Amino acid sequence: xxxxxxxxxxxxxxxxPGEVRACFESLExxxxxxxEWIIVEDGPLTDELYSLLDEYQNKYPDIIKRVPxxxxxxxxxxxxxxxxxxxxxxxxxxxxxxxxxxxxxxKQLAEFEKDSExxxxxxxxxxxxDDVHNIVAKRTVPLEDSGIxxxxxxxxxxxxxxxxxxxxxxLKAGNYKSCLLMEDTLLWCNMFLxxxxxxxxDDYLVYARVGTDMFERRGGYSYYKKYKAGRRQVYExxxxxxxxxxxxxxxxFIVAMMPNKLRGWVFTNxxxxxx
Length: 275
Description:
alpha/beta
């Protein structure tokens, strides 16, 4: 397998320039660097974000490919468009507020070298607040294909911010689709239904940014209704059973209705293992 690959990202109006810069710096510092960065501009951005993107495009004119969308489409449709602009078979997903460990891509490429039938490769993640050294939790996932697929019935068996996958496998599954809160979840289910093989590396290759505002966003009945709608789309794929669907709705309703501090504790200590 060639070591040529793309990085796929989406940036939107409320992204913080400092966090985007930290993400870009982690891509610059990789031991094996991407051949191109596909940056989808999901609707109009701030002057600060445009300035940052211009700076990097001037710095790497042959690497950075910007895909501007006239209106905000949401993450699923933004990534769907971005996938079509990726030039290489291997594509690494990246959220613009997260940070890659410097050997992330090197380790993932090695997995694809070992197994020509592999379609998706992820890893565990470390979650941090404010500073990458302030690790507050970690999210571990199953390592082998069968365990990942079983785990996916109720919770994601892949950390989406850590994944490298084959473009052909993504397109075979129908590409990303609009599915609020669950764009990646829906894609994994569709990819598994279409025969994709997955592994997770037993290591923490990405630092994912979290905070109290994240826990606030995941609370309240309005959030639960969005979750339910997304989960319904996942159920309609046929990948999960009715019992799995109802079970996850009950758990999510309980968590969404909790006070924010308690919900934060549940996420960091139960849903995501505390360090």
